[in-house]
Amino acid sequence: MNLHVVIGFGPAGAATARLLAERGHTVKVVTRNGRPAEPGIEHVALDASDAARLTEAVRGATALYHCAAPPYHRWVQELPGLASSVCAAAEATGAVLVLLGNLYGYGPVEGPLTEGLPLAATGPKGRVRAAVWEQARRLHEEGRLRAVEVRASDFFGPGVTDGGHLAARVMPRLLHGKSVSALGDPDAPHSWSYLPDVAAALAEVAGEEQAWGRAWHVPTGPAQSVRAMVDALAAEAGTAPVAVRGLPPAVLGLASLFSPLMRELKEIRYQFDRPFTLDSRAYEAAFALRATPLDAQVKATVEWWRARPGDGR
Fold first, then answer.
1. Threshold 0.85, pTM exceeds
2. 161, 248 in Cβ contact below 8 A?
3. List of residues 6+ apart from 278 with CB closer than 8 A
4. Whole-Å CA distances, 97 to 3, 146, 147, 234, 258
5. What is the separation of C-alpha 122 from the centre of its chain, rounded to a whole number of angstroms?
6. Which of 223, 236, 269, 297 could crosslink 189 through cysteines, CB 3.0-4.6 Å?
């Protein structure tokens, strides 16, 4: 069995660690505060920005998965140091570095997002996300480590809670037949990356040498508007119809005075005001993974939320 080290235990880190354990690998998870043990997974408490301690935790690993992120409003201050530490650990140990990225680095573009687009974001969070990959890619090209990045759109599915636009702010209300609010235009097409597919993509590219040295988009199904997704979820839950209302800019502005998260969301408002679609054909042409069918995603998501204490009907 190979050792795989996952940094971070948010939705993607947890899904990736559990998938790797299910496949029979030895899995170590690194988080700042640690967690109780669970089958097949060793949890280690350490600050991943401490390169020396992280390197010791990674020794002997086949792959290192960087799925951690500081609080949303602290990205600019803390992501660079964390990324440098992770790169140092990968370089020192020889583990393949698998970065979980997103689409912020491209900035606003016309048309579908492909991996060939320049990382031309001008906002601070977009630029720092781009810089994380640019650092790893440079080190890869210099032969100092082996790196690959997997980029996902907004997470959707079981395990996605506070950070998801179709999660904690939507699902509990939807399951009780109540109206929901959406950031931006609720009828604009938008890509949603299903969390189990994100984990499966991270695991797949770690073992594919042809994947290393570049970024790939997670296999993601056809774009669906917030309204279409809510309609599908409500139909599965048996609570249809559920009203969907767009969150006006004035309301977002007022909320940003009191909420750091809402304040930070202003930078990526463009992703919800107009079509925002991910093209994953390059990944699908090169590797085996395909996006889970939407009806299966919706069914699993409704079942997961219904099973959560206080969220189901």
1. yes
2. no
3. 103, 112, 113, 151, 153, 191, 193, 217, 218, 220, 223
4. 13, 6, 5, 39, 38
5. 21
6. 223
